[in-house]
Amino acid sequence: MKKSKQASKARDHLEILQTRVVVERDHVSSISSSDFPFHTSNRYPDHDLVERLRNKIIIAIEKKSQYDMEFDIIGVDASIANALRRIMIAEVPTMAIEKVFIYDNTSIVQDEVLAHRLGLIPIKADPDEFDFKQSTEHPTDQNTIVFKLKQECKRNPKASADEAEYINHNVYSAALIWEPKGDQAERFKDSPIRPVHDDILIAQMRPGQKIELEAHCEKGCGKEHAKWSPAATASYRLMPDIILKEEITGDLADKFASCFAPGVVEVENKTVDGESKKVAKVVNPRLDTVSREVLRHKEFEDKVQLTRIRDHFIFRVESTGILESEKIVFDSLQILSSKCTMLLKALDIKLKEKEETETSQNNENAMELDT
Amino acid sequence: MKITPDTKVQNAATFEIFREDHTMGNVIRHKLLQEPQVIFAGYKIPHPLEHNVIIRVQTTNETKPEAMVAKALNDLITEVGYLRTKFMVHK
């Protein structure tokens, strides 16, 4: 009896090591994934990938608004989750101001600083409608969006005491006026191209100062410059899992609950043998910050284990307002698979080259033998 | 992409992939390690200013590193495709 209990305890421990990242008082253990062949009990020499995926992968959307979403991916390896995160930040293309032609700038903001500030303004334009512009190519209506900005600051002679002294002294992103080229006016008549926000302060001027410029937007990726990144934040964390090894009752239960973020642990009243007692119960581990406060108290030392589920990723994707969050995620999946296809093609070409050189070498050898 | 077979070890090769980074390197390494025929798989980015990754693969005698990388990529496409259909359901 004792032996089997020990065995089941060992099995539990092994399962925790395989499926959980364990957060301890002063360090984090069991970090690396052990999900590969011949590790402990994993033996899947003739595994069917699709079958394994079908049993494992779950996607659940937790919160969704147009430009902000939280969703769970369960059952993938950290490398895939991280690849998706990296692609969302650095490889999903958008449009941003890349070239600025300054006709007149007498403000105190230097030309290059002004150009940099313009570049960082998110531009509401569907990147799928445009092509990448190579440096050798000329701008066309297929790869460039043109904005004009012209503003001059003047004194307001009729200003009352509580009114601004100047007219047009704040240059906001709303001053960027889209100039449709070619068939762009027709193509984007349902969603005119404009800055996402109209109230981004670009520069401040004083009477007599003037800014006049033309800005060209091009398509690009976040890995070249962060201004092209469609994600304001794209991050993931692992789902916390609080394992109670023993029941925590009475006043200790209250203390236990206060160790966690609000809503994670609740104290319930349970009636056992006609007697009511307080029992701590984990209700919503998602809200937990995994602060380790509970591990500071001696009384909870052997009663609780803080863990995170190794293959349960909680993604949070906030958009800059150019693309919808959902589209950023969907595009990242698309880009990941197209990168794979591209590499497969490259590999194929290399293999064919190798084959050709080998056969031609063989032929040469054979000819030598003949002579 | 550039493939260099190892001169000293059988069934081993390094794959140099240009203009890729940790995104693909790590994911391919993980998928290679899922294969029982792969003895070794690792990746590195030799220099932060050069935009390429080097993936080294050693396999058993049953197969070739090139075949395993191709399988890894195909498996990855399947998995991502699967994620995509799952994601579509919520759309």
Automatic annotation (TrEMBL), chain A:
GO function term, MF aspect, one: DNA-directed RNA polymerase activity
Organism domain of life: Eukaryota
One example of a Gene Ontology biological process annotation: DNA-templated transcription
Residue ranges of coiled coil: none
DNA-directed RNA polymerase RpoA/D/Rpb3-type domain span: 68-346
Pfam families named among the record's database cross-references: RNA_pol_A_bac (PF01000), RNA_pol_L (PF01193)
Localization per record: Nucleus
Gene Ontology cellular component list: nuclear DNA-directed RNA polymerase complex; RNA polymerase I complex; RNA polymerase III complex
Keyword terms: DNA-directed RNA polymerase, Nucleus, Transcription
Subcellular location, principal: nucleus
NCBIfam families: PRK00783.1
Membership in a protein family: Belongs to the archaeal Rpo3/eukaryotic RPB3 RNA polymerase subunit family.
Name used for this protein in its record: DNA-directed RNA polymerases I and III subunit RPAC1
Species name: Rhizophagus irregularis (strain DAOM 197198w)
From TrEMBL, chain B:
GO molecular function: DNA binding; DNA-directed RNA polymerase activity; protein dimerization activity
Keyword Ligase: no
Location in or out of the cell: Nucleus
InterPro entries: RBP11 (IPR037685), RBP11-like (IPR036603), RBP11-like_dimer (IPR009025), RNA_pol_Rpb11_13-16kDa_CS (IPR008193), Rpo11-like (IPR022905)
Presence of keyword Disulfide bond: no
Similarity comment: family membership: Belongs to the archaeal Rpo11/eukaryotic RPB11/RPC19 RNA polymerase subunit family.
Entries under PANTHER family matching the protein: DNA-DIRECTED RNA POLYMERASE I,II,III (PTHR13946), DNA-DIRECTED RNA POLYMERASE II SUBUNIT RPB11 (PTHR13946:SF16)
Name of protein: DNA-directed RNA polymerase
Lineage start: Eukaryota, Fungi, Fungi incertae sedis, Mucoromycota, Glomeromycotina
